[in-house]
Structures are given as structure tokens and as C-alpha cells.
Write a structure and sequence with these properties.
This protein has 288 residues and is mainly alpha-helical. It has two domains: 1-127, no CATH class; 136-288, no CATH class. The chain contains eleven helices and four strands; from the N terminus they run ααααββαααααββαα. It has helices spanning 8-19, 27-40, 48-66, 75-91, 109-125, 138-161, 171-174, 177-208, 213-226, 245-265, 268-285, and strands spanning 100-102, 105-107, 233-234, 239-240. Strands 1-2 form a two-stranded antiparallel sheet. The chain has a two-stranded antiparallel ribbon with strand order 3-4. Helix 4 runs antiparallel to helix 8 (177-208) and helix 8 (177-208) packs across helix 11 (268-285). The longest helix is centred in the C-terminal third of the chain and has 32 residues, at 177-208. The radius of gyration is 19 Å and the shape is globular.
Length: 288
């Protein structure tokens, strides 16, 4: 489904189908809950409370549109409400998107539902271009490589100095060959694409409609950085507790690079590829 959303024509058709008639929007949370039941029940992790939370989580954005709850208010307020409603519950782990495991690796299937919901809503809005091309061109790959080298040159020396970055292979993860194979596409599909869709496709694009390029890029990067304050990091020499200001700083630097690549190349997948490379490097090579 996510790969199909590369195609603008597919995104448009599906979004139009869900909104015409508008009552059809309620099929979306119903499909997600059926998917949850189909995955959770056979795996023995069905929880009624979790199902109720998922129902509320996916129904709220639908209810906002279905009831025209913010009719007459600015589009920016509607965006802010929906961003908070979609982002915060997962950011603060009010819901758990990890419904199953493959070879011991948690697969957050629930994230896919969030991604598809974002695609449907953003395509319906038509206030900004999602920048989701089908093929990464040579120029985009070159921009990704340059941005990756820039981040490596900035983050690694500073991170090493403050003990946030510690060189060392992740032997626990590499001990299972399948995990090594799955890790890159899993990061791309379950972390990079959802976060790039939210922070660049929605938040940065929204800020760019109100601010000039550099202020909009900086604001989006800072918001992305601050979203990492609640991430605890433990290295072999130091523990970075919450609020994790060093993580927020490094994530802001990364968010600036992701946002620049996204804006310069008009490609969500280019920024998602850069995001994946950074996270993959962190998980595999800086586990010390």
C-alpha cells in the first residue's frame, strides 16, 4: 500500500473515494481495527483496551473531517489539531503500533495505518505538494550522499566528545542474519517514511506557506529535534536521561539536513533515504 502511494494518481483516487461520500471515511478506522484483530489474535497479543485506544486514535481525525468540527477556522488550526492528534499518541507511546514480530524484530504494523491515513488526508487537502516521486534520480542520490557526509562530520566528533556516540558493532542485532537484512527496509518503511511524511510533508510544508525558506526549515528542524527529548539513550560510558537535550540537538541537525534535501530535491523519498542511512548507521555501527 505504501509503495502504491508513490503514484499521485493512486493517492488521488483513493482519497477521493474515501471522501465521496464523506460517510465512507469511517471505513478507515474499521479497516485498521480488523487488521489489528487479524494480526493480534493469532499472535496471542489481543488486548481489548488497546483495541479501544486504536479505535479512538484512528477515529478522531476522521471525526474532525466528517463533522466539519473546525469549519470557519483557519486551515492552519485544522492542521495543528490533526498533527497533534496523529503525532502525540505515538510519540508518547499512548498506543503501541508494534503488533507483531518477525524473527524477534518488532514490526510496527500500526505505523502503516498512520502513514496511509496521512496520505489520504494530505492528498485531500491539496494545499501543498507532497513531493513523492516514483524514482530517485542521480542528483537526488548525490544530495543524499553529501548531506549524509555533512551530518557524519558534524554529529560524530561532537557526539564522541560528549559520549553520546560510541563506536562499536551491534553484535546482538547482527547475531541474527535476517535482522540485518530486514533492518534497512524496516527503518525506511516504519520510521523514515512516517516521520518524513509528518515532519517534512506536513509540518515543514505548512511552515513554508507562512515563513521564508530558511526560517521555515529551521523551525521544522527544531520541532523535529524537540520530539526526541523523550528518548533515553544509554551508551557504554554514559546515560542520557529524559529530557535528552543532546539527542534533541543532534536530531535538530539531522532534521535540518533532511528538510534541506526534501526541499531542494522535492522528494520525500530522498529525505527518507537519508533518514534511513543515519538511523541504520546509528543502530549498527554506534552501539558502543
Amino acid at each position: 500500500m505504501i509503495v502504491l502511494f508513490i503514484l499521485p494518481s493512486f493517492r488521488k483516487r483513493l482519497s477521493t473515494w474515501f471522501f465521496a461520500p464523506k460517510d465512507r471515511l469511517w471505513l478507515f478506522p474499521a479497516i485498521v481495527l480488523l487488521s489489528y484483530a487479524g494480526i493480534a489474535v493469532p499472535n496471542g497479543r489481543w488486548q481489548s483496551g488497546e483495541c479501544v485506544l486504536l479505535a479512538i486514535y484512528f477515529s478522531y481525525p476522521v471525526a474532525v473531517y466528517w463533522t466539519d468540527l473546525f469549519r470557519g477556522t483557519s486551515a492552519s488550526l485544522l492542521d495543528a489539531v490533526l498533527v497533534l492528534a496523529i503525532w502525540f499518541p505515538q510519540e508518547f507511546e499512548l498506543i503501541d503500533p508494534r503488533w507483531t514480530k518477525i524473527n524477534g524484530l518488532p514490526i510496527p504494523v500500526g505505523v502503516f495505518g498512520t502513514v496511509i491515513l496521512l496520505f489520504v488526508l494530505l492528498t485531500h487537502e491539496e494545499r501543498f505538494d507532497l513531493h513523492v516521486p516514483g524514482v530517485l534520480k542521480a542528483g537526488e542520490l548525490r544530495s543524499v550522499g553529501i548531506a549524509y557526509a555533512f551530518l557524519f562530520a558534524v554529529i560524530v566528533p561532537i557526539g564522541t566528545q560528549v559520549d553520546f556516540v560510541a563506536l562499536g558493532l551491534n553484535h546482538r542485532l547482527l547475531g541474527n542474519p535476517w535482522n540485518s537484512v530486514l533492518l534497512f527496509p524496516v527503518i525506511f518503511l516504519t520510521v523514515a517514511v512516517p516521520e518524513e511524511l509528518l515532519f517534512r510533508g506536513w509540518i515543514q510544508n505548512l511552515l513554508m506557506t507562512r515563513l521564508k525558506f530558511l526560517p521555515g526549515l529551521l523551525c521544522a528542524a527544531v520541532i523535529f529535534g524537540l520530539s526526541h527529548l523523550d528518548n533515553k539513550v544509554v551508551t557504554s560510558t554514559h546515560t542520557f536521561n529524559i529530557p535528552n537535550w543532546w539527542y534533541a540537538f543532534f536530531a535538530t541537525c539531522a532534521g535540518f539536513a533532511y528538510g534541506y534535501v526534501y526541499h531542494k530535491r522535492r522528494s520525500l523519498f530522498a529525505s527518507a533515504l537519508l533518514h534511513t542511512l543515519v538511523d541504520f548507521t546509528w543502530v549498527i555501527f554506534f552501539a558502543g
